[in-house]
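Re: beginner question about structure tokens

> Can someone show what the tokenized structure looks like for a real chain? I only ever see the sequence side.

Sure, here's an example I had lying around. Input first:
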Amino acid sequence: MARFELKLPKMGESVAEATITSWLKEVGDTIELDEAVVEIATDKVDSEIPSEVEGTLIEILFQKDDVVAVGDTIGVIEIEGDDIKKEPTIAANAASESHIEEVEKTLEKAVEVVSIPISKTSDSGKFYSPLVRNIAEKEGVTMNELESIMGSGKDGRVTKEDILTYIENRGNTVKEAPIAVPVKEVASPVKAEAIKQVTRSAVKAIPVSVNGGDEIIEMSRMGKLIAKHMVDSVQTSAHVQSFIEIDVTNIVKWRDKVKDGFLKREGEKLTFTPIFMQAIATTIKKYPLINIAVDGDKIIKKKNINLGMAAALPDGNLIVPVIKNADQLSLVGITKSVNDLASRARNNALKPDEVQDGTYTVTNVGGFGSIMGTPIINQPQVAILALGAIRKVPAVIETPEGDFIGIRQKMFVSHSYDHRVVNGALGGMFIKTLKDILESWDLDQDF
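And the corresponding structure tokens:
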């Protein structure tokens, strides 16, 4: 018999980890090829991991609610024949001290440390994973310091994020007890200001008062992940916005004229979204430096144009399915992709690869009645477009015979972009070109 390592697959360019929500199989269960073994969740999608082999599940290395890094082995399946994976696995029930020390030494040498489910506790009985202990040892965190960290994991466990946050803020933390500073120690205004800066950095957030009639609502797992993703984006990118108003009267008239025939011929409802998506993909081809990502001090120019489409879920959260190679699709192809992805997003039936590798994101704030918005960039992308509501407004219409006032269908478009790598000229020209494409829509064209 041989062993096959079931690993957490890559879930997307910006996704480095996932949470195990439930195991669908138990140790000793028989597993068929492509049969779902475990359910996982990220900030983008909930999904199942299927087995690539037939066999028997003999080890489970991570439990429910554990956070697992991409590429980690989460279980072992016993199969017929030779080993498919030659690397040795670490048994979940390994308990000898010598084995634990060997694992920790291996982790110290790894480029990227991964968590393994081997229990190890302090003298107080508090649980610390080998990952946390290894990070603490490398960063010089004492056991007393480790025990003072408030854990956010299950049963108050200190997670990787907890200890990394502690290490990051350790040098900037001022103890709650006041420290007397003799006047002679403040030798210059520079030192006095430095002390003020440290004091200001240590100010805690004002606690929120809760009255008897207030309702406390626990944030969902996805809500917490989305919140962190949004804050990280604002802290990473220098957000700048450009706005433009677009006359879409011809598009409204054209859609009204062809939508019934489109439904009859293609079996799909034609909304405004695929029309705008096609125009955006065309615009990106003209300005490829919008279709980039930033990696340190390097710019990655993306070969494919993969449009993310922000979709609202019934629980109020958002998900961003991706239309791959949107510039290569016809209007019919984009329409089918948009309708299919939107429908399965609402039913929580998207596959992991359908929410990854996006290079540019579009969000329709007009669907909620908003005329414009200032969306937050979906990292590691560098730009995002918000489509406002289409409205009938009075407008000046220029004709060869002169100007006159008429009713037109117009909308605002908001373009948020990363000012580290996209300047105002590029950000502005992008939406000006999009405006020109949409306003020149041919009323006589076919679909």
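Each token stands for a local structural state, so reading them left to right follows the chain. Residues 85-119, 173-192, 198-203 have pLDDT under 50 and may be disordered.
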